[in-house]
Amino acid sequence: MTETTPKDTLPPHERIAVAGLRQPASIHVDRWGIPHLRAENEHDLFLAQGFNAARDRLWQIDLWRKRGLGLLAADFGPGYLAQDRASRLFLYRGDIEAEFAAYAPDARAICEAFVAGINAYVALVEAEPDRLPPEFRAMGTRPQRWAAEDVVRIRSHSLTRNALSEVIRAIILSRADLATDLLRKNLEPMKEPVRAEGLDLSTLGVEVLTQFKLATAGVTFSAERLAAPLGDWRRWTGVSDLGEVVQGAEMEGSNNWAIHGSRTESGRPILASDPHRAHAAPSLRYIVHLEAPGFNAIGAGEPGVPGISIGHNGTAAFALTIHGADQEDVYVYETAADLPRHYRHAGGFEPMEVVEERFAVKDAPEQVLELCFTRHGPVIAEDRAARRAVAIRTVWSQPGAAPYLGSLSSMRARSLAEFREALRRWGTPSVNKVYADTGGTVAWAPAGFAPQRPNWDGLLPVPGDGSHEWSGLLDPAEYPWRVDPLEGFVHSANEQNMPADWPHARKTFGYEWTEASRARRIREALTRGPLLTLADSTDLQTDVTSLPARRLCALLLSLPRGREPELWAARALLEEWDHRLEADSAAAALFEVFVTKHLKPRLLAALVPDATLRPLLLPQDMESLLRAVEQPDPRLGADPARARDALLTECLLAAFRDCEARMGVSPAEWQWSRLHQGYFSHALMGVAPEAGNLDVGPFPVGGSASTPMHTGYRPSDFRCTYGASVRLVMDVGEWDNSLCINAPGQSGDPASPHYADLAPHWARGEYVPLLYSRAAVDAMEMQRIELVPAG
């Protein structure tokens, strides 16, 4: 671990009067930008958390709120009106008191205090304009005040699934077969998707997903979009092409594990977590320490949400990764010939609910747009000529489905029994929870709403006529648990990890999971060797061993040698390689170029005759790719093994020549990091030069999406765009030994020394202290902000 002190450009001490504060509170910012908040009561603590979130991340959380509530066009013009409309389709519209009560008895009070803190900082910015982040000045906008309901009504940034996959599968199965679709997404356990009788899926196209993609997309900026005229608003979907959207869904995941004291050198449990999301400046996650009488917790969450979702409370540590519960369904309706906003259900036609929404638009009159809803959810596509409408049913309409708000209960649990009870309140995203406490207990369980489908499997769109209805949500009391297993640890990495005897058809979670190479490598590392230490966990979080490389190299090195000198040189590199995608590895560069630029496209061309389907199969499921080459079938020809060997040989030769063109003729000059670099881009780069250089990077990094150090990249140029920004490794019971990193930095203010100070450490696999005790924090403190009641 390397420590360097960031440039001290912040005032060492401030005193600020804050409206709504009942007693004095304080923010102690350590040398790494981690704020340690102290208050005399929980109301003031969560008010201070909101105030501090706005202090460090005001542009980010203001943009998130405006995106989620459909308020972008008021700031940025007609080019954002379509996104506003799509976002409002997915707002929570149910009983707001039931919504707050779903998370914790005091959830409303916490959210009210939190937004009071945000609003207090907004008022401070209005009184002292020099505090306004440069993004607002560059765009000519101002932050808005929040209501407590804003925290819980926004759903569309939650990681639910699998509406995109359902529609893509319907297209593929209508034009090809299941074997073709499995190249895109493996199913576990394997099954034939149930096709609803009488529903023609061949007429569905990816265009029906436009509104859903738009509702769940981040905010993008371009000069053309910002200048879009009102008459052109419908064409500004503002989202990437389908391939990039699907890749994003596949890349987002996480690792976590909890090691029992019987397997550690100290005799204490160790809990580690590194959630994998899209890289950006500022970071998605934010580390914060919350301390008041009766509650003292530190960890990471999202800055626009009160509390923490990963961390510890001095007694119990907790973390999460995405679990593969299927929380979405696509419904297709027959609409009435003479009444297109009526749809067939239960033998008759019933009307859609039509809601008129008002949208403020910059430099244009207010717009009134219609939103349509069926009994299942928002209508995302209508085709009146075909008499068809499409809607999405999702758990977002349920009370308790605001992402991560279940943390308001789970972060306060001090025993396994309390933690289990708290997880009953967890709605979205569906997650694997791992747990460890000072009593020595470690545990794993899934959490999150799991819709039950009594007569179908959720893998394809279904009719909305009443024949395919949820029977409810699986009772969390029936979820599986692993507590203190004999092997001495629990872990997850988004893989299919239900018990071997789990009745998938009767107690449904889902059939789509992330391929298991990261999980297998984690299990391999935790199973081997002597007693484990914190360093073993930090090493594993930054481990770049690729099990797919191990499997593919076994095939490549069994091929006939061939006559080309490039093949001999390629084999020499791979024979000496340990299958680690190190940043400075020539073999790693060759392997990743081989897989991404040559094997994947050539394999799809060989296995999928319909070239128009191939883009829908990207980025390709790695387990399915490995199965296709390890178990070649007649799709490759009369002699599948021979055809497979020829294909691998041609791809390896092409990859070697590709590397020569990219990095020079000598493999001694090759390095994986010459192609593969970490980068944190800011949404305004390129459109607001007056705001300064807001991007952070590039940084040379190793790994891939299939290594525990997840560094997923764009196939077009190998830029690392997904992976862990936050990493935490916690020594349960000796909390000041715990370690963390957040990248590119804790602050979202480009003027702050903590905007990008952690990125170099992240790139080198280094950590900084996650301090908990007052003595340790005060010894490192660099900045103190005293908050006093106004008036």
UniProtKB/TrEMBL annotation:
Top-rank taxon, per record: Bacteria
Statement: the UniProt record of this protein carries the keyword Calcium: yes
Any Gene Ontology biological process: antibiotic biosynthetic process
Entry annotation: catalytic residues: 254 (nucleophile)
Record key words, sorted: Calcium, Hydrolase, Metal-binding, Zymogen
Free-text remark on how the cofactor is bound: Binds 1 Ca(2+) ion per dimer.
Protein family (similarity comment): Belongs to the peptidase S45 family.
Protein name in UniProt: Penicillin acylase
Organism whose genome encodes this protein: Teichococcus aestuarii
